[in-house]
DNA sequence: CCGTTGAATCGTCCATGCTTGAAACGTAGG
DNA sequence: CCTACGTTTCAAGCATGGACGATTCAACGG
């Protein structure tokens, strides 16, 4: 029960996952990626022309988002399409402090 | 127009403030503080007994939250009460990527 | 095959933010 | 006043995450 006192069990359970999720979003590049993907799936090359950062750097941030289970990647020939995971928006909303519903890990 | 290409003006406008807000929340201590304050105002000593971190450290994180305009502090005698700013929840919800409404700075 | 393109991975460097300990500040009480 | 308490501020140390360059991988086209 990492941070909160033993009395706050339920709160502590939400905390770890919620913070991890928010940390994934709280970066300029990753926020931009998610905001673009909110409009629908995009291939990496498409993201790259809208977010002016080095290709390898974008790849790094996509990996972080993948490991947070916020986006999914599917190869389409030479390209790779990224899309928001279906419940991404819900999980993020639930991760905000004070949210009534728990974070689904 | 920091990150997003010139074509994404509106998105870029939201980005900076949104990320700043999310960065303030994406920390275990600050998340715990906000989650507790969501139930109502609390004095620092009250927060301190529910979040087992050093006093000065808690004070540091409270300052970050103050500077993000998420919480307000008012002195009551020897103690200082912290409370969520009224529109804190709305501002946070609006800061999530894909949110339809812009972030009010 | 071989070159090219889209994308991911690796190794390294650097800055930023969290943590810690000590000191300072404001308030109340004896 | 002088002390005690609650809280903040200051001056470090330290770790971690993000940036960069070079390399690797996978798919397609000639």
Characterization of the model:
- The structure is a homodimer of 105-residue chains.
- With 105 residues, chain A is α+β, with helices and mostly antiparallel strands.
- Helices cover 52% and strands 13% of the residues of chain A.
- Chain A has a 3-stranded antiparallel sheet with strand order 1-3-2.
- In chain A, helix 1 crosses helix 5 (88-95).
- Chain A is elongated and about 50 Å long.
- The structure holds a DNA duplex (30 and 30 nucleotides).
Number of domains of chain A: 1
- The separation of the N and C termini of chain A measures 17 Å
Q: What low-confidence regions of chain A span 5 or more consecutive residues with pLDDT below 50?
A: none
SSE-based structural type of chain A? alpha+beta
* SS summary, helix count of chain A: 5
Following the backbone from N to C, one meets helices and strands of chain A in this order, namely: HHEHHEEH
Q: Which two chains share the most extensive interface?
A: A-B, 39 and 38 residues
Please outline the major beta sheet of chain A. 3 strands, antiparallel
- What is the correct CATH architecture of chain A? Orthogonal Bundle
**CATH topology value of chain A:** Arc Repressor Mutant, subunit A
User: How are the strands of the biggest sheet of chain A laid out side by side?
Assistant: 1-3-2
Principal-axes geometry of chain A comes out as elongated
Radius of gyration of chain A: 15 Å
Strand tally of chain A is 3
Mean of residue pLDDT values of chain A: 91
Oligomer state of the chains in this structure: homodimer
What fraction, in percent, of the residue positions of chain A are helical? 40-55%
CATH superfamily of chain A: Winged helix-like DNA-binding domain superfamily/Winged helix DNA-binding domain
| Beta strand % of chain A | 5-15%
CATH class of chain A: Mainly Alpha
